[in-house]
Here is the input.
Amino acid sequence: MVAKAYYMYVLLCADNSFYCGFTDDVARRFATHQAYQGAKYTRVKRRHPLKLIYQEKFANKHDALSAEYHFKHQTRLKKETFLRVHGVTW
Here is the structure.
């Protein structure tokens, strides 16, 4: 049996903030955010449009959740550094 993959992803919001989450289906989850039905944070109209700028695949849910937690608990500067190191420009 193949283990299910999970992803940590980062959205760039129209107000220049970042939103980080985890999922087992990035495209489906992004569509949910785009439809104002995702997390409370992305339901706010002034944060739209959203742009998916980063995703990383993990072998299990625990590792994806851990990556999400660590990203969310960084300063803005450290989040920007992380994204740059991973080849993301916004």
